[in-house]
What does this fold into?
Amino acid sequence: MIKKKKNIRDLDVEKHSAEHAHDDGHSHDGEEINFKSYLPAIISFVMLIVGIALSYFKVPFFKGWVEIVWYIVAYTPVSFPVLKEGWKSILNGDFFTEFLLMSIATIGAFAIGEYPEGVAVMLFYAVGELFQNAAVNRAKSNIKALLDVRPNEALVYRNKDYTSVNPEAVEIGEKVQVRVGEKVPLDGILLSKKASFNTAALTGESKPDSVANGEKVFAGSINLEGVIEIETTKAFKDSSIARILDMVQNATARKSKTELFIRKFARIYTPIVVFLAIALTFLPYFFVEDYVFQDWLYRALIFLVISCPCALVISIPLGYFGGLGAASKNGILFKGASFLDEMTKVTTVVMDKTGTVTKGVFKIKQIEAIDREEAEFMKYLMAMEEQSTHPIAKAILEYKAEGEDFEATNVSEVAGKGLKGTVNGKIVLVGNKALITSNNIEVPKETDSIVESIVMVSIENKFAGYVIIADELKEDAHQAIKQIRKSGISKIMMLSGDKDSITQQVAKELGIDAAKGGLLPEDKLTEVEKLMSADHKVAFIGDGINDAPVLAASDVGIAMGGLGSDVAIETADVIIQTDQPSKIAMAIKIGRSTRHIVWQNIGLAFGVKAIVLILGAGGLATMWEAVFADVGVALLAILNAVRLQKMKW
It folds into this structure.
């Protein structure tokens, strides 16, 4: 997780290029679909503007059947999907939808000769739907990147030679060879003497995992040192990386889509408006002496056109897109408007450790030199570590010591323990506690309580000191926890693949309520599902491939977009582009502010609509007054939504 990830646009370009190379037509199809979705609205808009201009300038030929046909052609591209959905809903027994209301209102507009209004109303609705669809498409989890992590070949020992086969064809108990830099294809046990693996894909931890003969090895781990052999213990479909892929797919499928407010509102609003229009047509017969059916039908159709909730359709997405814009401006990417709403409901925040609240990079935390100056002690240590490629060695070599460096000779590796060599004619041991004690050197008891990675040094069979290496907390980690609490979150929890002792220490330092370490992806998923089953609304924050299942399953998945893995970024609902955990609280606040603005816009649109409906029912409002009221409300909604861009959180 420590290597810098590409930005999302770069990923999209690379994916497009890869697809283009394999299937030229496929890539172009994707572009055509995107353009086609906007084409109906563009055609209708152009024809509507041209039609209004022809009417305004009273062009002789533009009247009668020519005008009617022109507007029908303009109406068809944007109305066909709505009319089709309305008809489907009726066949399925769901009569009162926004599709039915739009259909009746716009057909009614044509019936009373208000052709431009009929087209305009449906065009407004179509544009609103395009906005919403764009948000939904961004919210869809793309987990194809997991396929890049999944091993695609295994060198299996058959007929006295190693043969490359598909991992799915390898049986349990077979011997598999893994070269340096290759991924372990299946779960198994190590047959070689020792091995070192990058298990970031599984645990999210950047520290290499050292494994001895007979210990477990997991599929998806990357072999770092030498050619090794493993004996498979599970079929490919049951391997660690295959389970992660399966969990992400299942969790994404289980996650229900947030229903848009306009859909919920239409189920109440539509039947009321339809029955009022019917009543407006027939009830006057019992109360008006000179009742004329055509006049009251005309008034009812005007009422229906006025009742068409285009201001609502416009004002709601405007509020959400104002929130999306404000979030983006602050380095927070919401993949859909619905997730702004979901953020307001979060009661529990669960977070990963490495790469989320820590930097995912090893640094020297503490140096304890005994009977020597710190600089001299470090020169002995650095001379030995120059012979190693281990990430901890790299962290130690970042130390700056004045004067000439020491040089190590006769350096050899003690399997699973460390290094032995000679520096300035003195025998030096560098490694873990087991290395030092196996040479009958006494280690201070104070080191027993240290939970971080510790490198011990002995010079001439005497304990010379130690260096503590730890992952650094991000600069705003403490501030992030405080702000999350201030935003009203009742519970903060940490789940990590790192050692439990280290996880507990980081959680204690940050003031986090509960923590669990040493977890595999399925363990994290189980913990989050327990919380969700207990009616907690959970936001999970992570950055690794191992976090992908939990990001998909949680109510809101938040990924770190700078250092985060491609899979985490693709699976999450929200991306913190700056990698700052303090942005989590900001995302919650932006969600709440957006919700307030949306409800203000709804109240404004509905209030004005109610007034114009009453006037329309009484014959006091014309079609143009209704359109003007809608346009006025839409402008006010725009100005209100723009306020989100100016707010400070």
In short: The longest strand covers residues 358-369. Confidence is low (pLDDT under 50) at residues 1-33, 135-147, 251-259. The two ends are 30 Å apart (CA to CA).
